[in-house]
Amino acid sequence: MLYVSRYVMKEGAEARVMEVYPRHREYLDRVAADGRILLIGPLLPAPGSGSMAVFRDAEAAAAFPLGDPFVLEGLAEPLPVQEWNALEYL
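RESULT FIELD:
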């Protein structure tokens, strides 16, 4: 089982995305270093659609948005973590 963490961008957030992005990317790189995150990226059309990340465990998926600068600085609103029973063809 995999776990999906998503958030949606708040209205007007686009004006600050590039300002906050370097802090978001630094945070993402730290989280990714532990190997629990499998995939992450913006939903299209970016930047207003939000983002999703796929994790190996529910705890990591739930914790991720709590430290993300996009959330902490008021640009994004996290959604509840969802279990994902992914079929793998790779």
